[in-house]
Amino acid sequence: MATLPTVVINTRQVWDNRENSKLSEVVYKQRKMSAFSDCYLELSDDPVRFEPINQLTNVFFDDSNKDVFTVRSGGVMGVVVKGPKENGKVLNFRMEDQGTVLSIKLSLDHKVLAVQRNNTSIEFMNVNKEHLVVEYSISCKRNASILGFVWSDINEFAVITDHGVELYTVIPDKKALKQLKSTSITVQWFVWCPRNNIAILASSHGSQLQPVAIKQGSISKLPKVETEPRRMALKGDVTLSTLYGTAAVLILRHQSGPHTAEVHVHLLNVSGQSPVKAHVLKLGLSGRFAINVVDDLILVHHQASSSSQIFDIALAEESDGSVRYHTTVAPMKSLKPTSITLPGLVEPQSHACELYSPNWVVFQPNIVIDAKLGCLWHIKLRLSELCQQIKDMSVCTQLALNRTDGKPVLLTLLSDAIKADKPDMNKLQESFNHINLVYRDWVDREVQNQSACPASASKNQSSPRVLIDQNAMFEEIFQTMSADADLLKIERVLVCYLTSLAEYGVPVQFNLNKLLVSTLARQNKFNALQQLLQYGVITDSKPLAVLLLSLGNMHSSSTQMALDMLARLKANDEIQEVLLSEHQILSALKLAKDEANPRKFLTAAKSSGDPTLFHSVLYYFRNHPKFASVLQSDERLHTFINDYNEMFSGSCA
Amino acid sequence: MGALNQDVDIQNFFIFNSQLCPKEGEELKKIVYYYPPSDNTEVQVENVGLVEGIIQFTQTFNPDSPVKSLHTGKQRQLFLQPERDFWIVLTIALPVVTKVKENTSFIEYLEEDVQDNVYESVLRQLYDMYRLFWGTFQHTLEQSDLGTLMTKIEKFYNAYLKTLRMAHMDILTVFKGIQYLPLDRHTFLKIQCFVNDVESNMEYIAHTAFLYNEHVVWSGIEPNDMQTIYQYLIDQLLPANVEAELQGGSMPRNLQSPFTALRRGRFITGPSNLKQAKTVGKVPKIYLFNEDGVLEYYLVVYRALSATVCFFVKGKTELTLDQFKALDEHINPRLSPIVNSIADYCSKQVVSPSNIQESSPKFIYFNKLNLACKSTVHLDNKHTGNVACSADSLRIMADMKNTSHFLGPSGENIVKTTNDYWVFSKTSNLREFYIVLQQKSASLISISEEVKRLCESELEGIFFHPM
């Protein structure tokens, strides 16, 4: 859509105006205005309000600073600048009327105002609080005509003319500009992306699209966008945006004949390769469209049907090898209706805003302006409503995983799916796999970070948008399942989750292992527990071995498994304790070797009531080179010798 | 040598209940079943009467522990009272060799070759197998009458006794263990998920067991019950079906490709050909016994590639053809990738028999808690006597097993035979481990070391008591 550096908002420019758009083909569905619960897009509650456009007032929008300029009578009656937030700082000033304002923009630090009133020059004014002080200007080369200008950095200023780009540095104190660079290229129109500092310069009626990066005092040409040869594009059909951190050129392609419109997505990778068509969004409609990007989702609004489609290029959909074809992830839906309060005769009145109005202009990434109404909204995604519209759990999971606030939504989604009467285990498995793919990558990076450079590693950069780790699963999913009624379900979902972890080679945490053991034990499924342990599903750990030991009174296999586990962990001390508690004193003693504590063993042997055993243990210590002296010196052990003598005095004599 | 050598054989097998007819002169009525039918009634009555007498006589000495066996010069008799008043008796003719001494040949009965614990186990299995399919004797008596019980028993044992290979019973018969398939965690979990998915979708399925070839991978029912079902599957059901598959596979009729036929799974109990079936076919009903009482299930067995899946369908379920079709539809596509990944794993693990040295030690492992059993002594599961060590050694093992309770929770027993075989038994952490190795002029220490190495390599990850 219209992405002029500064746009005079008038209704002609709002929607992509195609002469041949066939509105009749579009089935316009009368929407029940009462059912908004399934609307997955909404406008911000607190729009930026400004004076609506009229005969005296012009409104401009600067998409670098997201400022709205209301210019009354060419500035003589005042200029009001409002930021993207309704309650933000408002700048008010007056200008002398030196002709119709074509474009007006503040520098990125709001200290210099640039105004274009004709095709050949631009005036600058230093902003001192609310007063404009001095005026200085630049003019472009002879015969060149200014198409627009952008503030590319704090004091950097680029003018795009039909002959190329000129880059200046502005020195407000000296009231002067210094040319830094210029590049010469034929330009018919251009689109600027303030986020990536990239401009697309179009020539040959938009069939040649040349991206240039304007940053750090230089202008660098990037490889041309590879479009279909000689296929023309209107300025309004080209959108520059950022998708998943990569600059992207979105070109709306109307098709002739029975075909419906498509959006072609070209990604401007850093690698220096030419941006080829990577994704095609199939709209399935024709007519007037507008494009926004919210949270890396592409929204395509369709005016005739007053509804929006939503696309995610990260979803693995049908592909022909180089291009992936996408269809809307959820059924087309209207934005959620909204209203504003207008001053009335008696009291303020609520006014329902017309959605998809012809007066709308959209700006990147997610701004909608109704100039006639004097409102600027941000489009917001209602993720949980969107997820409810998507039938396929696996698609839903992938979508939610890539959204900034996806975690609570995804957890609710999972939880609801599991609580269903008959959860589809296969779909659940797919969801877990998507979640754990992200999780595994994160775990891998964490391990690398820790081993490589523990302090300097930037954690924020690498952390995924939605990370559902084992603790999150444990706390948000498994612990919330009503434990008593649903042991079998917990067991099944847990096994499903563990399978997915195994698929990605992520070691299972103790809390999940423990939950599995206790869930099986509570169902008295020791046979299953034994098999799971045998096949290594449950990771060995000392606490788990202790848990198994405590279950020994329910099923003797628990003790066996615990001992095996301790043996694998080489936990000799613990094994000794177990053997002692089972009165296998000699076995324990053999295991203890030189580390034995004579008192402990003698006590155990004595309390067994078996004189032979007591004899064996005492004799072992007495004849052991290390313990013989201990037996002599440690007074606490003398009592055992006395007991022994007493026990065997009769037979020895 | 004479030609009169004879293996162990069943002399007779009978079931009686003294309470059925306490009157004199009508002793025949006590006999519920008698095999062989060729024995005339006089012989039958005589044999039963003799056993009755022995039982009553021995009871006076030790009322708490009824008599288990009777040794005579030519035969061995084993007794089992599985239910109140019902006795099952198995009489075995001792094996015979003809020897020549001082130019006269004479017959020698090899009493030592028949071990009580082995054949007690056979007797127990004879009962357990019946009970699995028909429930207890008492249950039938309560539900119907003696006539029905006798018909059921006759029908069952006439067929079953013929399949028993009496001559090659050994220590494995005592264990009646279950062979588990060694598998990696991930593949095992896939099977778990498959089982969970089926059970949560098909609510009429109470439990599931998953076998790959002759090995159990997953069993949802208790080992004690699985034991008998496993014997049934391995000894009876699967061999019959594998044979049928092999015959059908070599000459595919009316099918486009032999591969599609093999890939597609089918029910081996129930409707074997779903497309043409009009009824659900024969689905055996089984009875499982636990603390809570008797549980009835239908045993539906499905086979695809090398996998056998047993579904234990709740006994109250009305089986319909649609159910089978839905089940087939659901599991068939899911099963193939799982079976393939098991096959992949197994092909990586397999040690072909040629790699194993003949002199390398052979072992039998048994865990009495899950009845897991593994043997490198036996070369197949068919009880044909295809073993990798001497029959002597196997007998020594069974004898060791008989006395293993003297060892307590842990211990070792070592026997050296005159032909340089060493037989080792080891009890530890409720497991039993028997090793046989042949080594000339070896010392006790070197044999112990050898055994220790074997334990570490073959049974890693389990706890052995220090010796």
From TrEMBL, chain A:
Pfam families: RMC1_C, RMC1_N. InterPro entries: RMC1, RMC1_C, RMC1_N, WD40_repeat_dom_sf. GO terms for biological process: regulation of autophagy. This is Mic1 domain-containing protein. PANTHER family: COLON CANCER-ASSOCIATED PROTEIN MIC1, REGULATOR OF MON1-CCZ1 COMPLEX. SUPFAM superfamilies: WD40 repeat-like (SSF50978). Transmembrane segments: none annotated. It comes from Dendroctonus ponderosae. GO terms for cellular component: late endosome membrane; lysosomal membrane; Mon1-Ccz1 complex. Residues 59-177 form the Regulator of MON1-CCZ1 complex N-terminal domain. It comes from the Eukaryota. Residues 403-623 form the Mic1 domain.
Automatic annotation (TrEMBL), chain B:
One of its GO terms (biological process) is vesicle-mediated transport. GO terms for cellular component: Mon1-Ccz1 complex. Residues 11-135 form the CCZ1/INTU/HSP4 first Longin domain. Signal peptide: none annotated. Residues 205-317 form the CCZ1/INTU second Longin domain. It comes from the Eukaryota. It holds the Pfam family Intu_longin_1. Belongs to the CCZ1 family. This is CCZ1/INTU/HSP4 first Longin domain-containing protein.
